[in-house]
Q: What sequence folds into this?
């Protein structure tokens, strides 16, 4: 287990740093933004992302297993090197995940991580990459900031990806830190709640630095935004253009605040984030995403895997996914868990 003992990103100059999107989907774009900052500081930064795409891109439930990648250089059971020729084949349905699109922008190979192998599998993958590529540090990028939740918040829609990733970042042998980009941008925890949690971590001495999007970074990435299937990860760019106010995302099922705070990111101590996250501790030692889901379900937590499975059934029955149906399906799923005899988490 390693904490990244630095006082600023500038101290990483000359080091090799893995920048990995830890929430799946469009977090590859958010990680790109942090990668550009590091490279501008003279850091040898490598891009990676856990691959769990939203259902608008991947209709099948769950993260993408490494075995379903085509034209990928498999490094371990939960990590592969991918490039512009790589794609996913899920039961005959083919698509390019966001991390492959990021590879096209950079013109270089990047890393794809497999969440289906649980916390243990992802930890092993990070350790393996660190050894094979000579990585000195890892920065896990979460767009929105749900990774710093306590785990008791009703607003959490996607606890599995964040918890598995946080656990692996805490347990890897490589010094690691968390980067929260665009507080509240994913429509789960509000911007105010994420900032409150950052302040709580700061009181414990866990705030390493506060950074913001620059014009040069905006110019580099703005022209590539349409390549990404993401709403949350595009909000920092909207904010940089002067966007202000509330915006509906996820078919109107959630509202987010857009303002200049949305164009900032915060580097945090991974150990302090992990200690305060009940869910990351709850799924400690899991060897599959199903095992992690089962532990959460036991405590009445409805996960993104549950939602995707329920939406998949809805579509098989001829139903259409709308903002209203998203809310209805999630509400029904949470009620079903409560009726199953689950035991709610003990929250202070």
A:
């Amino acid at each position: 287990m390693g904490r990244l003992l630095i006082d600023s990103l500038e101290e990483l100059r000359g080091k090799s740093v893995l920048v990995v999107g830890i929430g799946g989907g469009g977090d590859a774009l958010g990680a790109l933004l942090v990668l550009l900052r590091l490279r501008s500081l003279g850091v040898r930064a490598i891009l990676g992302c856990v691959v769990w795409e939203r259902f608008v891109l991947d209709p099948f439930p769950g993260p993408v297993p490494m075995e379903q990648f085509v034209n990928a250089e498999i490094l371990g059971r939960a990590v592969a090197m991918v490039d512009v020729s790589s794609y996913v084949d899920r039961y005959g349905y083919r698509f390019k995940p966001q991390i492959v699109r990021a590879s096209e922008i950079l013109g270089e190979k990047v890393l794809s991580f497999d969440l289906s192998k649980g916390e243990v599998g992802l930890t092993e993958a990070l350790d393996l990459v660190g050894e094979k590529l000579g990585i000195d540090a890892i920065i896990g990028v979460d767009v929105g900031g749900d990774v710093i939740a306590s785990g008791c918040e009703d607003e959490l829609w996607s606890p599995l990806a964040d918890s598995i990733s946080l656990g692996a970042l805490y347990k890897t042998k490589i010094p690691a830190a968390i980067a929260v980009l665009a507080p509240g941008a994913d429509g789960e925890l509000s911007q105010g709640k994420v900032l409150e949690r950052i302040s709580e971590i700061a009181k414990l001495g866990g705030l390493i630095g506060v950074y913001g999007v620059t014009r040069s970074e905006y110019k580099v990435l703005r022209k590539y935004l349409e390549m990404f299937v993401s709403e949350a990860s595009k909000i920092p760019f909207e904010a940089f253009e002067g966007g202000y106010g509330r915006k509906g995302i996820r078919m109107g099922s959630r509202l987010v605040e857009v303002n200049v705070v949305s164009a900032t990111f915060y580097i945090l101590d991974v150990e302090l984030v992990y200690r305060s996250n009940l869910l990351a501790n709850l799924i400690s030692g899991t060897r599959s995403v199903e095992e992690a889901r089962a532990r959460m379900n036991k405590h009445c937590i409805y996960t993104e895997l549950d939602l995707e499975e329920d939406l998949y059934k809805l579509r098989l029955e001829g139903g259409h996914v709308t903002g209203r149906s998203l809310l209805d399906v999630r509400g029904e799923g949470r009620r079903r868990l409560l009726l199953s005899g689950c035991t709610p988490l003990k929250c202070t």
The CA atoms of residues 148 and 197 lie 7 Å apart. The chain has twelve helices and 14 strands. The radius of gyration is 19 Å.
